[in-house]
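Morning. Coffee machine broken again, so started the prediction first thing and wrote up yesterday's gels while waiting. Chain of 697 residues, entered below exactly as on the submission form.
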Amino acid sequence: MAACKANLRRFTKRGFGRVSFWGCLIAAVNIENGYAAGLPGRDAVIVTPGEEGLAGDADAASQGTIDEEQIENRPLSRPGEVLEAIPGVVVTQHSGSGKANQYFLRGFNLDHGTDFAVYIDGMPINLPSHGHGQGYADINFLIPELIEHIHYRKGPYYAEEGDFSAAGAAHVHLKRALDGTTIDFTPGSYGYLRTLVSGGREFAGGKLMGVVEIGQDNGPWVIPEKLRKLNGLLRYAQGDERNGFTLTAMGYTSHWNATDQVPLRAVNDGSIPRFGAVDPTDSGRTSRYSLSSQWIRSDQAGSTRANAYVIRSELKLYSNFTFFLNDPLNGDQIEQVDRRTISGGEVSRLWKTQFSGREIEHTAGLRLRNDNIGQVGLFNTVARQQLSTVRNDSVLQTNASLYYSAAIPLTSWLRGNLGARGDFYRFKVDSDNPANSGKASASLLSPKLGLVLGPWSNTEYYVNYGQGFHSNDARGATITVDPVTGAPAERVTPLARAIGYELGMRAAPFKGLQTSLALWRLDLASELLFVGDAGTTEPSRPSRREGIEWANYYRPFGSVTFDFDLTLSKARFRGDDPAGNFIPGSADRTFSGGVTFGDKDGWSGGLRLRYFGARALIEDNSQKSGSSTLVNARLGYAINRQFKIGFEVLNLLNRKVDDITYFYTSRLQGEPAAGVEDKHFHPVEPRSLRVSAVLHF
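Came back before lunch.
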């Protein structure tokens, strides 16, 4: 208990409040009582409460696995919200439904994924040197019904995690096979309609699985979204998770009209309605096609894993954020284009050795990735017609990574985790402006260290340290001339280092309850950022983020599970600056809680509440966003094994809140040439209902 007080003292002094202290107090009291329920195991922690008694395998308090059961009954307004099952993650949207979500975690406004790595069956989702933003992570092609589990890790403490994982990483694993055929038909409010057909059968000594998803949605927008989505998967699998392989083909395409964020002043004076748009021609189109394979072989000494993939990705976005500020005649609409082919793979080996009577677990791996970006461009447009080119490039970016880690039992109550990762990058940029063409390379060594103490009274304690990074846009690594002004431009540091620390504990204080507490800090080095919306670089200062996370899962009986998590964080630029030290868009408080229930027969459902705290919008904190609280609900009833009906209510309380808020200068027609500083927001959609009918045979 004394240790808990000491760790929290500096956080409570900094205004995190009584909740942090009492959260720790309750957890500590339960731990000291030492009720027998057992700890969850490595990467399967704090998700499915039970009495497994699996102590001694986790590496940190802030890692875990979300299983199929926890996902199945969660109400979801969009596919990306499955990541909100990860404690502390918030997923929003500021444009059309086909655009990548905006992610928030550990004091980061992660934009579309910059410091949050996402993988689906070993395929990397984050796209470096992307037309819209570094690390762009679009998971709109994900079909939630196919998820078997999501493994997550937070912080730069793991040798297996590389680019974009400073805040965390999520590994989504899909089901190997399906039994029978399922048809899911779901109409809803505002023209929503989704049809999902899936099935599986025995084939050629293995199992064949096929899935087709067709979707459309208009939303509440004055300019109907007219989302059209076609998605499919074909998988062949042999063997099992210890000895077997999968071969998977995936295809996805969608197009939509986009209502981007709108200025608050225009809504307040009645110029446009809350769900209106300033530029009615904003829109997007995207596609993704992939072929991938996973292979595993296990023996007495350990196991060998390998995966390989090739991905074809295209995106075209039309956006107008400032309206008539830069071009009073034609407007400020831009077109962002990204076309690339991604290829790569990974091979890893896990094995065990004996030393002084103790078993050491080793993991070593090699990862390769190549992004052949045929076109990454930024153009000035009007009504989706090109007026001029800001910049137009092709990029070849290659990354090779080696990593090694060892789990070493030191005593019966202490074990260590040592690791290191080496990354090498090579960039080649061919620009429409020869002055911005060139080659660059960079390398980085990232050490990792962890200690695990316990278990004592069904409790383990963790100390973690690690270095990580995110790569920057290759175009920023070779730039010499600002494409807009023609002025000299400073080049970007290709790899931006992150250094993280974490103290944590995890416990099963009594039957059915699992709880974890983590105190963390993350420092990011000074770097320059390449801004895809402007085609140039802008300076960024060194930063520090620190906070506390408390996650709880409680299963009192049967399939009923309660969960809640609370995160408190502080994000600041380091050093003094007259502009201020707040990091725009960083949330200092989030809360999520809910209940899920249900078996295969009878009633099932879930109720979710998510609180997204207020955020500083500019460095001096003089402009802040509002907070938001959303409640979603889901209820289903299985009439028999073959037929199930379901009801989903999104934004149950019909809260009039914002999905995202920004503060910047824009200009509407008739306003001063210098524009007006104002809040710009994208509203949460009003209450909506979806009804599903599921037939299985």
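The longest strand covers residues 358-382. Going to sketch it on the whiteboard this afternoon.
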